[in-house]
Write a structure and sequence with these properties.
This protein is an alpha+beta fold. The strands form 2 sheets. Strands 1-2-6-5 form a 4-stranded antiparallel β-sheet, with no helix packed on it. Strands 4-3-7-8 form a 4-stranded antiparallel β-sheet. The N and C termini lie far apart (68 Å).
């Protein structure tokens, strides 16, 4: 015996179908917002507006002729900064952090302190993975560096 499909059968079928689609989309949206909140770089719009200042700092840094060599392992960071004559640059106040590529909440702020002529070091417990070492001077002579790091 074959049952006849009536209008209310079609209506119920469509409501169930689209109800399932909406429920699955709601679950996916909820999970997406919980795992990634959106913009990860704070004040990115302001950074874009002030990009000419960044270029001027980089040009001034290039004129100084400073070079930096970093060593990073699971126990900490060591940074050697030398001037154009190969002499260690001392007396810098450095802002440093290990930036996580996906979540700024996992960033590790480093306290780089002088450890000899031109040598700055910080001890930190650094987990394995991909990091970006970001170092700059907030005041004084311009110095900025970024280096991609893989720890295993």
């Amino acid at each position: 015996m074959i049952r006849e499909i009536k209008g209310y059968h079609v209506l119920i079928g469509l409501l169930v179908f689209f109800g399932i689609i909406i429920a699955v989309n709601a679950v996916f949206l909820t999970q997406a917002f919980r795992t990634f909140r959106g913009e990860d770089e704070p004040r990115s719009y302001v950074q874009g507006i002030n990009y000419n200042d960044t270029l001027a700092r980089r040009e001034a840094q290039a004129e100084l002729g400073w070079t930096a060599i970093s060593t990073v392992d699971e126990t900490g960071v060591r940074l050697e900064i030398s001037d154009a004559d190969g002499q260690g640059v001392t007396g810098l106040m450095l802002d440093a952090r290990l930036r996580h590529p996906a979540d700024s909440n996992l960033d590790i702020v480093l306290d780089l302190r002088g450890d000899g002529p031109g040598v700055y070091a910080s001890q930190a417990d650094i987990p394995a993975g991909r990091w970006t070492l970001v170092v700059s001077t907030p005041d004084g002579p311009p110095f900025e560096m970024e280096q991609e790091i893989w720890l295993q």
